[in-house]
Amino acid sequence: MSFFGKLKSKLFKSSAKLEEGLDAIVQEDVVLEDILEDEPSVVVATDAVIIPEPEPEPEPEPEPEPVAVPEAAPKVAFEPLEIDTTPLNPLPGKSGVFGRTPRRVLDDDMLEQLEELLISSDMGVDTAVRITANLAEGRFGKKLSTAEIKTALAEEIARVMEPVARPLPIYNKKPQVILVVGVNGSGKTTTIGKLASQFKQAGKSVVIAAGDTFRAAAVGQLKVWGERAGVPVMTAPEGSDPASLAFDAMTQAEADGADLLMIDTAGRLQNRIDLMEELSKIIRVIRKKDPSAPHNTILVLDATTGQNALNQVEVFQKLADVTGLIMTKLDGTAKGGVLVSLADKFALPIHAIGVGEQIDDLDAFDPKDFANALTGA
User: Fold this and answer.
1) Other CB atoms closer than 10 Å to residue 280's CB: what's the count?
2) Number of domains in the chain
3) Residue 105's beta-bridge partner residues?
């Protein structure tokens, strides 16, 4: 299955929520005569022919009995028509009289309901207002079906996200240092493993530094991914200085002629001062080796956190110079709209999205595919 196919099938929680809401909005206050308006007349075919009874005739005089002869088949001018007994209302999978999808006039009340629906899908107030206002242009006062609104929404969402859909840039620099940040549980470690595996398959040599030295589980997980991808993983004893490990990893990556060095980091937001100092120290140390490093600072976000993802972006922009985003766990939430809000508010590049645990469940971000999958268009 293509990644878009997976995206469409795995974003069912978000798309189902939007679809249900749109159906409810469009069908609200729909009057029967509005549905029937412009409906072509319906003709039902039948083989029953009603013939008026003839006037009674006087009884004929009795005649002698005729000699029995074989009866000829009756001649008919047409084949009997088969009567279609399928119910005309409703048709399977459709709503409205005679299976016609109901339409509703796009007015101020409907726009307000659309805004509320988008906000409930975690697009945020400002983004929801902007998208519905754009949707109304050229459509206000017209009757729209659910399918038409879905298509229009997908177009407006894609328009918001197209400027930020950019792949992770690869530079002609060895090693290119990629610092990966994010809160614990965001899928950061798994994302590093998947990226490393995909880079390796693309012919790049990769080194991973397990810089979250206070979490043995994160180190163990990276080791598993490293073995799976054939990528070396640099580790240090639990509780070691992450900056020291980053320095050693950079030295090793330079010696090996590696194309990429990916550095995992801690994500403990409970004490932001310590985390800020830790990240600042890592950056200072690796810049002793290469003043231009890190060349990318990727923030990994968990889609299930909804609007809290916006707070995380604000925090990590202060802690580190975030250059791009990757969002994970879009398959497990009805809050997929938060990615639209992030694009609208921060305009940071979105490099990739994840919809599962498998290696090919992380792929480059495509705004049109995402918008179609989110809305069910």
Assistant:
1) 13
2) 2
3) 143
Q: Which two tokens stand for residue 250?
A: 């950079």
pLDDT digits (tens, 9 = 90+) for 100-116: 678 889 999 999 999 99
Give the Cα separation of 328 and 265 in Å (integer): 17
User: Which pairing describes strands 104-105 and 176-181: parallel, antiparallel, or unpaired?
Assistant: unpaired
Q: What is the pTM of this model?
A: 0.78
331 and 274 in a single domain? The answer is yes
Average pLDDT, the chain: 81
182, 208: one domain: yes
In the chain, % of residues over pLDDT 70 = 75
Position 246 in a domain: yes
User: Do 114 and 155 share a domain, yes or no?
Assistant: yes
d(CA 235, CA 210): 5
183: left (phi over 0), alpha (psi -120 to 50) or beta: beta
Q: Is residue 149 part of a domain?
A: yes
Residue 348's nearest CA partner among 310, 306, 303, 293 is 310
Helix (H) or strand (E) holding 178: strand 176-181
| Distance between CA atoms of residues 222 and 194, nearest Å | 10
The C-alpha atoms of residue 323 and residue 351 are separated, in whole angstroms, by 10
**Cα–Cα distances in Å, from 299 out to 76, 208, 242, 324?**
79, 16, 18, 6
Overall size of the chain counted in residues: 377
Question: In this structure, are 185 and 155 located in the same domain?
Answer: no
Residue 254: count other Cβ atoms within 10 Å of its Cβ: 15
Return the CATH number at 282: 3.40.50.300
Tokens of 243: 């900056």
Is 35 inside a domain boundary?
Answer: no
Q: Which domain holds residue 122?
A: 100-164
pLDDT (tens digit, 9 = 90+) per residue, 225-277?
Answer: 899 889 999 999 999 999 999 999 999 999 999 999 999 999 877 667 888 88
